[in-house]
Amino acid sequence: MKNKALPPLNWLRSFEAAARLLSFTQAANELHMTQGAISQQIKSLEAQLNTPLFKRQARSIELTEEGLAYLPIVHGAIQKLMIATNEIFGEGHRKQVKIRGSMAFFSYWLNARRLTSFQAEHPDINLQLNTDIWLRQEEMAGDLEIRWGKGQWTGVNVERLSRDTLFPVCSPALLARQPLRQVDDLRHHELLHVMGYEEGWGEWLQFAEATRVNPSEGMQFDTYACVLHLVESGFGVALGRLSLVEDQLRDGTLIAPFGQRLPSSEDFYLVYPQEGFSNPYARRFADWLLRNTSGRSLPP
Question: 260-271: per-residue pLDDT in tens?
Answer without folding.
Answer: 999 999 999 999
